[in-house]
Write a structure and sequence with these properties.
Strands 1-2-4-5-6-7-8-9 form an eight-stranded mixed β-barrel, surrounded by four helices. It has eleven helices and ten strands. The protein is globular. The protein is of the alpha/beta class and 280 residues long. The protein binds ligand C2E and calcium ion (3 copies). This is EAL domain-containing protein.
Length: 280
């Protein structure tokens, strides 16, 4: 048993060293990623009950020649840790808005409400955040009401006054806000009323467990009816089957996103979907 323990320890130590090395390599690669053009955006369709395209969520992709594809779930937290998220966040916002401007000029189908962009809490908390959004609006000349900023619940419980002030300033331009991963964070519903929120996005973990876990069903149901009462839109994320869509529709959900409709796609395909006024 003793021997096994020692080997176990050695293994653990080795794994830890490996992780530290991996992290150092990742950090180093991340520093050059913008300059070396290693980022691009993909767009995941958002649809209504009839499968009509109502929007896109912009999602960041990173391909590094040495590391291959690295998931944003892996590198965004690292970027936040080492302070690169500001530069990356600006890059995402600017590129999503440039693309939106191209689509705007092309002429948008009437059902299309615009593009959602994920905003890191660190990025939002930055002093100059509102200014940087205004700058991008200015340089790209987008219709601000076509921009949907996705923020997380956790952001709404700290510095309420300052967060609300920033949101209202952006709201005045017509920018919309969605709460991402709703139901996983603090969910203190009382807070919601302080902020100009347009939409709640039901986290995909609830959608995934809809049929197997009665709690998920109850929570989803509660979120949908609460959103109704508060006059908010509600969108279900991570919808992967007809079955899940049917349950959600039954609960009263009308907006969806997930592999069942489409995976995130590159800009050229997203452009085709828009041109064809695609029904998913
Ligand atoms: P998120 O904002 O909750 O984005 C949804 C994630 O679920 C995306 O993963 C998407 O590809 C994936 N997804 C969509 N439909 C389905 C489905 O039907 N089933 C399953 N299992 N997954 C689905 P992705 O693109 O890997 O992004 C992961 C997370 O990384 C995002 O979660 C978001 O928190 C973060 N992220 C991505 N892009 C950005 C960005 O530009 N800025 C910031 N700050 N964070 C980003
Ligand atoms: Ca999101
Ligand atoms: Ca989400
Ligand atoms: Ca998520």
């Amino acid at each position: 048993a003793k021997k096994k323990g020692r080997n176990g320890f050695r293994f653990y130590r080795q794994e830890m060293l490996q992780q530290i090395t991996d992290l150092a390599i990742l950090e180093k690669a991340l520093h050059g990623a913008i300059h070396d053009n290693e980022f691009y955006l993909v767009y995941q369709p958002q649809v209504n009950n009839y499968g009509v395209l109502i929007g896109y969520e912009a999602l960041l992709r990173w391909f590094n020649p040495e590391l291959g594809f690295v998931s944003p779930a892996r590198f965004i937290p690292v970027a936040e840790e080492i302070g690169l998220i500001y530069e990356i966040g600006d890059w995402v916002l600017e590129n999503a808005c440039r693309q939106l401007r191209i689509w705007q000029d092309m002429g948008l189908p009437p059902s299309f409400e615009g593009v959602a962009v994920n905003i890191s809490p660190y990025q939002f908390a930055q002093e100059g955040f509102v200014n940087s959004v205004e700058k991008v609006m200015e340089s790209t000349q987008i219709d601000p009401s076509l921009l949907d900023l996705e923020i997380t619940e956790g952001m709404l419980v700290e510095n309420i006054a300052s967060v609300a002030e920033k949101m209202w300033r952006l709201k005045e331009h017509g920018i919309r806000f969605s709460i991402d991963d709703f139901g996983t964070g603090y969910s203190s519903l009382r807070y919601l009323q302080h902020f100009p929120i347009n939409q709640l996005k039901i986290d995909q973990t609830f959608v995934r467990d809809l049929s197997s876990d009665p709690n998920s069903h109850v929570i989803t149901n509660t979120i949908v009816s609460m959103a109704e009462h508060m006059n908010l839109s509600v969108l279900a994320e991570g919808v992967e089957s007809t079955f899940e869509k049917a349950i959600l529709e039954n609960i009263g959900c009308t907006r969806y996103q997930g592999y069942y409709f489409s995976k995130p796609v590159k800009a050229d395909l997203a452009t085709l979907f828009l041109k064809d006024n695609e029904v998913f």
